[in-house]
Amino acid sequence: xxxxxxxxxxxxxxxxxxxxxxxxxATRIDTQRMKVTCDDGQIITTNIKKSGYLGDYGExxxxxxxxDIQKNIIEEIQADKQENPIDQFIADGxxxxxxxxxxxxxxxxxxxxxEVC
Length: 117
Prior knowledge:
Layout: E1 2-7, E2 24-28, E3 33-37, E4 43-47, E5 59-64, H1 66-81, H2 85-91, H3 94-103, H4 107-116
Antiparallel strand pairs: 1-2, 1-5, 2-3, 3-4
């Protein structure tokens, strides 16, 4: 996701590796927290609505989060498309063969049934 500084509260100001008006790359941790990559590459974990990095608890603005959501959806779809080995075993006839080997009728019984029918 992409974020920028929305408000700076108090007189503390910003640390030297954050600037107002700049869009930063971030990763959401949960509904309230994220990890932001600063100008110098440092990664900070901060609250979105009450961040101690923005003076006296300023606020971040989420500019874009669609890319992360789309990426997660694509990854989930690709994971679902991966072939399940059990499904492949069944599709290849392996289950039927194994079932017949364990529970199948002896050949002599099958022949007797053919004669009766």
